[in-house]
Amino acid sequence: MPALMVRIPQDQADVARHRFHADSYLPLPGLLTADGLDALREEARRLERIGRRRDFTMACMDGSPRHMTTLGGQVIARESRLIPDLYADPVLLDLLGSLTGERPVPVPDPLERHVLNILHRKGDTHGAHTDDYPYALVLFLEAPENPADGGLLAHTPRAVSLSDLDAGQARAVHHRPGDAYLLRSDTTAHRVTPLTRSGVRRTVLNFAYTTGSVTPRATPSARELYA
Predict the structure, then answer these.
(1) Does 1 reside within a domain?
(2) Helix pair 90-100, 10-23: axis angle to 10 deg
(3) Burial of 180 (0-12, 13-18, 19+ CB in 10 A)
(4) How does residue 179 score in pLDDT terms, banded at 50, 70 and 90?
(5) For the chain, what is the domain count?
(6) Position 70 pLDDT exceeds 60
(7) Which of 35, 51, 121, 203 is surrounded by the most beta carbons within 10 Å?
(8) pLDDT > 70? residue 57
């Protein structure tokens, strides 16, 4: 199998770890190799055919909207070898360990381990939320070229509540296909801004990890979105 990710030298990882601990967010531009992006994009397109359209508001996340197509980890594990293999890849786990300072381990619920999120209609959005587990690695397979088209990550680290996203504290970030980011996702309020026009797409894989030192939050959000 061709290399799917670019290796990050240890000295760069050390600098990145300090940035991540300060910001709870770390951009990883160009993390996917050209071969990796092509392979994962082809796999996502195949899996999208069995994805499920979601259009609802999530009560446990302050009634924030979900307008997107999703596929949960339990289905991905059954239908794909590539994605679960990458999720558990020792090279990727070593990288995440060097960036977080902790040894990441798979989350216990297969539903949440690796999920596919696709925004593909005008107005599609993944509304305000925090995650049940501490670390999210998000891999971009498709993304709007122009930030004005939406699909931006908006995030507020160490948020007291989801309303912090609307209090002038949120940072909005644009990513390109092949990029990734690492997020301290259980304490960072975050959302994806709505797509502003038809004809653009945002397709991401979200890999969730935990550690032995963290007690996961118990919310029904993942089951509402991916079950």
Answers:
(1) no
(2) 60
(3) buried
(4) very high
(5) 1
(6) yes
(7) 203
(8) yes
For residues 134 and 107, the answer to whether their CB atoms sit within 8 Å is no
Vertex 133 angle, CA 215 and 167, to 5°: 110
Q: Token digits for 219?
A: 């919310």
The CATH number of the domain holding residue 201 is 2.60.120.620
Structure tokens at 165: 């996203």
In this predicted structure, which of 3-7, 29-33, 92-96 has the lowest mean pLDDT?
A: 3-7
Q: Which domain holds residue 69?
A: 10-226
List of residues 6+ apart from 144 with CB closer than 8 A: 150, 151, 195, 200, 201, 202
Res 158 pLDDT > 90: yes
